[in-house]
TrEMBL record:
CDD domains: ABC_HisP_GlnQ. SUPFAM superfamilies: P-loop containing nucleoside triphosphate hydrolases. This is Amino acid ABC transporter ATP-binding protein. Coiled coil: none annotated.
Length: 262
């Protein structure tokens, strides 16, 4: 059985987390597809300003857990609490709550007939109901944060994979969410393009962005995360600061996984 993660942390960038109340809480979360149980009794919390990385072997339930956090995947049971509001409550407006939750996908999911600016602005216009001019101004600010202001007028096919993913990040942060969920954001990229995306994520972390990141980038997790969660077979096996998980794991399953990745 996994235990709730409620540690106070001091961020890697020297940002101390004062707020004791989590932005995200998963309580007793489970998920099954038919008779196949893919998540069981997941308890996890993420506090303001934290970057929490989730690692583990393929098929361990990492991405399913992440997608349950905004109900892109419908949980079979348990609670998903954002800013004190249970997303599973029938009286909760999921569309309104999703405005508080940014999402960056493995695939970039950009509209090919919109420019980088248009892709980011469209999210603001659809979700926040902003007029075009205001949406485009905020979209340009977001593209500037990810280092792509000069590519604002380019279409996805004119951008590298790394640039397209940075547009995806800009689209997520333009909504000014309370937390951003990253689902293996570098898994579709050529190795030489991974660094630019990870650098943007480092900068967001230093700015105080709250982030939950499913990743296979072990060095990124070691260097940047406040906490690392190791999952296997639909369970949280172990969690703790990076130095514990990577240098002195408490569980043999964690130790074997980390050793294989080095």
């Amino acid at each position: 059985m996994s235990e709730a993660i409620t540690l106070d942390t001091t961020g890697g960038a020297g940002v101390h987390v004062h707020n004791p109340f989590p932005i995200l809480e998963l309580v007793g979360l489970y998920k099954s597809f038919g008779h196949q149980l893919v998540l069981e009794n997941i308890d996890l919390s993420v506090r303001p300003g934290e970057l929490v990385c989730v690692i583990g072997p393929s098929g361990s339930g990492k991405s399913t857990m992440l997608r349950c956090c905004n109900r892109l995947e419908e949980p079979s049971g348990g609670q998903v609490i954002i800013d004190g509001i249970d997303l599973m409550d029938r009286n909760t407006s999921i569309d309104r709550m999703r405005q508080k939750i940014g999402m960056v996908f493995q695939q970039f999911n950009l509209y090919p007939h919109y420019t980088a600016l248009g892709n980011v602005a469209l999210a603001l216009r659809l979700v926040k109901k902003m007029p075009r001019r205001q949406a485009e101004a905020l979209a340009l600010e977001a593209l500037t944060r990810v280092g792509l202001a000069e590519r604002a007028g380019h279409y996805p096919h004119q951008l590298s994979g790394g640039q397209q993913q940075r547009v995806g990040i800009a689209r997520a942060i333009a909504l000014n969410p309370m937390i951003v969920l990253f689902d293996e954001p570098t898994s579709s990229l050529d190795p030489e393009l991974v660094g630019s995306v990870l650098e943007v994520m480092r900068e967001l972390r230093e700015s105080g962005m709250t982030m939950l990141v499913v990743t296979h980038e072990m060095e990124f997790a070691r260097a940047v995360a406040d906490r690392v969660v190791f999952m296997a077979d639909g369970h949280i096996v172990e969690h703790g600061p990076p130095e514990q998980i990577f240098a002195a794991p408490l569980q043999e399953r964690t130790r074997a996984f980390v050793e294989r990745r080095h």
